[in-house]
Amino acid sequence: MATALSGAALTVSGVFLTAPAAHADTNSCLSYLESQGYTFKTDYFYACYHGHRDWMLCYDILRNENVHYGVAARACDHAAT
Prior knowledge:
Number of helices: 4
Largest sheet: 2 strands, antiparallel
Strand content: 5-15%
């Protein structure tokens, strides 16, 4: 399920989100997520992202772990800009 999402857009719960660039700084993403209070779930996402580099798979893990929709996408957008 490898999908090229650089520059692609996701629509989740009516919120327009941009997928992170392939070179997004994941440490910055992690720091942002932690600052928003999502420290417990971030390990799942980053282990996945570093292991697979598959944004949709890892986004789904976040969603399935009941993390607020879109927070990781916003974090990675922020880190990629």
